[in-house]
Amino acid sequence: MQCLLPSTFNYLQDQILKPLIELSVFFKKFSSSKLNIENLILIEHQIPLIICQLEKIFPPRFFDSLEHLPMLLPYNTIVGGVFSISGCILLRDI
Q1: How confident is the model at residue 31, as a pLDDT?
Q2: Mean pLDDT per 10-residue run, the chain (94 residues)?
Q3: How far apart are the first and last CA of the chain?
Q4: Which of 19, 36, 70, 74 lies deepest, with the highest CB count within 10 Å?
Q5: DSSP secondary structure string for all residues of 19-48
Q6: Contact in structure between 17 and 9 (CB atoms under 8 Å)
Q7: How far, CA to CA in Å, does 20 sit from each of 17, 24, 58, 77, 80?
Q8: What are the residue boundaries of the structural domains of the chain, listed by start?
Q9: Is-contact 62 20, C-beta < 8 A?
Q10: Which residue(s) pair with 85 in the sheet?
């Protein structure tokens, strides 16, 4: 899949390509093995701008309630800490 995507990106306009690349970089930074608070705060401030750019490009039907999940991920990681159980999401009792 990673080999196919760069070839398709050649056909996209820059205004469409830029937000997609920024979203990809966001998830790459967020899923790195070492996270620090400064980077999390930085990507927490960048993701609303990326989502806004995507909303300008794609029709409203493209988005669902999960479109705003990336906006919550950095904050929840800063507040709750990083944890992983073999790729599963741990739900904590409140």
Answers
A1: 82
A2: 59 83 85 83 91 86 77 83 53 46
A3: 39
A4: 74
A5: HHHHHHHHHHHHTSS---HHHHHHHHHHHH
A6: yes
A7: 5, 6, 11, 23, 28
A8: 4-80
A9: no
A10: 88
Q: How far apart are CA 92 and CA 46, in angstroms?
A: 27
pTM above 0.85, yes or no: no
> Where are any strands of DSSP class E within the chain?
none
| pLDDT given for residue 83 in this prediction | 59
Residues 6+ apart with CB under 8 A from 14: none
pLDDT at 46: 92
Residue with tokens 């930074």: 29
CA distance 25 to 16: 15
The amino acid present at 10, given as its one-letter code, is N
